[in-house]
Amino acid sequence: MENWEKLPMAVGAIDGTLTEIYRPLVEPQELYYSGRRHFHCVHTQVVIDYLGKICYINAGFLGYQNDTQQFAMMTSIGRNAELDFPEGKVLLADMTLYTRQQMQ
Q1: Which residue of 36, 41, 51, 63 is most buried, as measured by CB atoms within 10 A?
Q2: Rounded to 10 degrees, what is the CA torsion of 79, 75, 52, 66?
Q3: pLDDT tens digit sequence for 37-82
Q4: How far separated are the first and last CA of the chain, in Å rounded?
Q5: Taking CA 23 as the corner, what is the angle to CA 22 and CA 24, rounded to the nearest 5 degrees?
Q6: How far apart are CA 37 and CA 30, in angstroms?
């Protein structure tokens, strides 16, 4: 804790990454398609601590989902949860809550 001088409340970071896959043989294939990347994929959410050590991984999210949708589906993380960290501390993230189309 408090190891990042400019971000003393942060104990780590969370971000998603994707893995390209072959087009699925199962229907509906579009669930695995990332329109933004233009290929089929699955997503993984990774949490690291302030040293860059991986603390938590949750994989298998569908290709069309963004970070915020994936986070909402994850097992609870935070105080007294599966991935516990001190009260009042936060994870850094680059999640977007709404798309431009949703805001119009």
Answers
A1: 63
A2: -120
A3: 888 988 888 888 888 899 888 888 887 787 777 877 877 776 677 7
A4: 40
A5: 105
A6: 13
- Which structure tokens are listed for 57? 């991984």
User: Where in the chain are the domains?
Assistant: 10-103
Tell me what pLDDT residue 78 has: 67
Instruction: Calculate the alpha carbon distances from 82 to 29, 41, 62, 89 in Å.
Output: 32, 27, 22, 16
